[in-house]
Backbone:
C-alpha cells in the first residue's frame, strides 16, 4: 500500500514516527514484525548496519534510536528515488544519522561490509500485483514466482555481511518458493534460521536470521 494524490501519511510504531510520501510503501505488519524480531536481540546487534529497500526509513531509524552508540553507522538503500528522499527527511526529523543511497539492492555499497543487514523484500508473485498501468511496483513485485528479488539479495549477502554479523530477512507464505530458497540457503554458504512467525488472515509471515559460518 502506498499513499497517493501528493499526500504524506504519518506512521508510528513503538514511539517512532515517520511521514510516508506519495509512492512510498506504508509500513505494515511485515515492517513491524521485522522491527520486533531485530529488537529482541537488543545490544547483541552492534556495529555498522545496512538496510536494503528502506522505504520510509522506519526500520533503520527505529534500530538507530533504540541502539544509540551501539548500532552505527547506519546506511540504507532503495531503488526508488522517492523512497530515498522520504527516508532522508524522516531520519532528519528523528535526529538520527542515516546515509540513504539510491540503487538496486547492494549496488550502492559494492565494496563495503556491515555487521547487521536487513531486508523486507518485495515477495509477492507477479500475478498478485494488480494490472494497473504505470511504474512497476518495486516495493511489492518479487518477480514471477515471488522469490527472485530475495534470491539476488541472498547471492550478494556473503560479500557484504561481516563475519560474526547477522542478516535479517522477511519471507511470506504467498511465495512458497521463497521459503524453499531459504531452506536451501546453505548452498550459498549461509545459514538461515527462522526466528519469528506470525499468522495473518491471508498469509503467514516469517523472519529469518542469516549468518555466515
Residues:
Amino acid at each position: 500500500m502506498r499513499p497517493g494524490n501528493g499526500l504524506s501519511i504519518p506512521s508510528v510504531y513503538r514511539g517512532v514516527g515517520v511521514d510516508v510520501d506519495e509512492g512510498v510503501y506504508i509500513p505494515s505488519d511485515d515492517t513491524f514484525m521485522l522491527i520486533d524480531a531485530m529488537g529482541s536481540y537488543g545490544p547483541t546487534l552492534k556495529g555498522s548496519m545496512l538496510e536494503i529497500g528502506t522505504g520510509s526509513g522506519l526500520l533503520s531509524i527505529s534500530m538507530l534510536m533504540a541502539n544509540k552508540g551501539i548500532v552505527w553507522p547506519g546506511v540504507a538503500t532503495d531503488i526508488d528515488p522517492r523512497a530515498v528522499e522520504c527516508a532522508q527527511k524522516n531520519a532528519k526529523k528523528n535526529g538520527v544519522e542515516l546515509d540513504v543511497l539510491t540503487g538496486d539492492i547492494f549496488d550502492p555499497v559494492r565494496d563495503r561490509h556491515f555487521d547487521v543487514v536487513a531486508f523486507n523484500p518485495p515477495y509477492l508473485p507477479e500475478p498478485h500485483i494488480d494490472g494497473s498501468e504505470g511504474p512497476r511496483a518495486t516495493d511489492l513485485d518479487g518477480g514471477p514466482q515471488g522469490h527472485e528479488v530475495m534470491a539476488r539479495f541472498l547471492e550478494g549477502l556473503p560479500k557484504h555481511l561481516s563475519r560474526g554479523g547477522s542478516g535479517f530477512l522477511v519471507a511470506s507464505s504467498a511465495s512458497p518458493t521463497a521459503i524453499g530458497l531459504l531452506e536451501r540457503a546453505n548452498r550459498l554458504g549461509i545459514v538461515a534460521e527462522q526466528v519469528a512467525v506470525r499468522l495473518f488472515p491471508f498469509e503467514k509471515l516469517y523472519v529469518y536470521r542469516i549468518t555466515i559460518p
Remarks:
- Residues 128-136 have pLDDT under 50 and may be disordered.
- The first helix runs from residue 29 to 39.
- The radius of gyration is 16 Å.
- Residues 9-211 form a domain with the Rossmann fold fold (CATH 3.40.50.150).
